[in-house]
Specification:
The protein is α+β, with helices and mostly antiparallel strands. The chain has one domain. Helices cover 19% and strands 25% of the residues. The strands form three sheets. A five-stranded antiparallel β-sheet has the order 2-1-5-9-8, with helices on one face. The chain has a two-stranded antiparallel ribbon with strand order 3-4. Strands 6-7 form a two-stranded antiparallel ribbon.
Length: 134
């Protein structure tokens, strides 16, 4: 039997659905990395109706097919976005959307969330195994 490449699943379908529902409601830009991949993909903002109990219907991430929640290794949201002040044209870092996202997901309870300098991460799995695969 082949051993999983990841140490533990930290998120279940219900938790992912709730996090992605917040992403959809806030219309926040996000990125995903799927299991077995090395780079984050830019996620497309989608309507909440696409969130099923176990899959995202046609998320635009996988070539048109459904995306199962168990396939998500991690999701990240920028902590801030650069924007221009409407009257002065001065460029500044707006943290309001990142703070709002963080407040909403923290209200869901204890989740595998990590806040770093540029991004807020929600982890789907623990660290990959470093030992032999069977």
């Amino acid at each position: 039997m082949r051993r999983s490449l990841y140490s533990s699943r930290l998120m279940n379908d219900t938790k992912w659905r709730e996090v992605l529902l917040i992403v959809a409601q806030l219309r926040v830009q996000f990125e995903l990395v799927l299991i077995g991949e090395e780079k984050f993909r830019t996620g497309m903002i989608f309507p909440a109706e696409r969130l099923g109990p176990h899959v995202i219907a046609d998320p635009g991430l996988t070539g048109g097919g459904p995306l199962h929640y168990w396939e998500i290794y991690a999701l990240r949201v920028p902590r801030w976005i650069k924007t221009r002040h409407a009257k002065t044209g001065v460029l500044f870092e707006d943290e309001s959307l990142g703070k709002s996202f963080l407040a909403h997901i923290r209200a869901l309870g204890q989740l595998p969330v990590e806040v770093l300098a540029e991004y807020i991460y929600v982890w789907g799995y623990g660290e990959p195994f470093r030992g032999k695969n069977l």
